[in-house]
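Appendix B. Raw example, untouched.
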Amino acid sequence: MTVIDATEEDALLPSRNDETTRARVAGLCRNPALPESLVLRLVDHPAADIVSLMYHRRTWSDELFDVLAAHPNVTVRDQLAMSPGATTEQRVRLVDDPDLCVLMTLLEGLWTTSSEPLPAWAYRKLAADPRLKRILHSYSPVGLPAAAAALADAEDEELAAWARTPRGSEPMTADRARSIAADGSVWEKAEIALDPNLPADVLTALMEDQDPTVRKYVTMRPDLTEQQRTEIGYEVSPHNRLPRLPWVIEAVGDQLQSCVSSSHPGIRRSAACSKNLTADQIATLAADDDFPVRLLLCENQHDVPTDLVVRTYLENRGVNRGEVLSNPAIRNADLTGYANSPEWGARALVVLDRQAPPALIERLSRDEHPGVRYWVASDPRLSPDRLLELLNDPETAGAAAANPTLPREIMEAIIDATDPRDPIGSHAPGAGPHAPIAAAS
């Protein structure tokens, strides 16, 4: 790596523009190659994005974790507790944290399916805290299985009673179903509408219900024909969130085929989640005119066309749109053909192709659209000179600062560049859980 002296640093980072400085610091928080010593400097930076800094760190040394676990700012400790890079052995060191927010984070666990639960003793210690014990009833034991298992035999009867709370809804009886059909809320009626054991009179009442939502749920029952669904009447919008139907997901053979070809979008959406689909059925759903069907197909099936995933990603406007890009159809594909796409979003996806040649990445870094340049700016295949050019462009400064090949000297220059009079302000230690997040917004 080229050594850059102080005078060159000044030339490379001439701007004290507040927005550019803020973007560089925020990008640096996402940089996977950020040295530990700079993490400690960055965590107290007035423009630091603490959430990104903690989330994007792949691993924590015990020494750095312990320093941050004692940090006076509760947001640092809270985000450390939910950092995917922290091990279970490290996270349990926070069970004595004085702040309730940190304890709640430990109790709730990480928002990933692969996260490991804390050891039983840690849950017992957390639940023994009077502040956490007072609000434990607001959590469902079903949502905290490891904690419930640890507390089921607790000597404290209040904790044990919470952990042993029945894990199912009230059994459905004919009388209860009739009561809901007559006087229940729309969503209570919709929920029982899918019950396969409904009495005939209750089913008839729900079919004729005045609320379209109730009738829509009735039409997704397995015991109806396509004609009966049409006669009941329903409307499904691409924005409607509908349940995934177990009877569809478990279907095979002719029943699954009838679901794939159903005129009901709700049934086809559930079919897209089935692990029993054939290649022809996947192809049929890939051409579906209902966007949620195609989205669910990309989220649940690996054998989908690459172009379908790309088109679905570009069409999606949801906050979780990036999740479809983890599909193997993208991860293992040759994406270089999209470099000449008329859609800038498709051109930007070329950076996901680890086999794309550096010359193509360099070319895309000069794309006419700033969105493409932003995506490419964090790619390690860029030449050092081009990376520094992007770092000085306000439209790409943040992404360039996240580039793992950024020299340490430049990282230090970014941290040092903030003017003390910067209007975003600074946060004093212990200034409150939202101070650093607000400063970086």
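End of appendix B.
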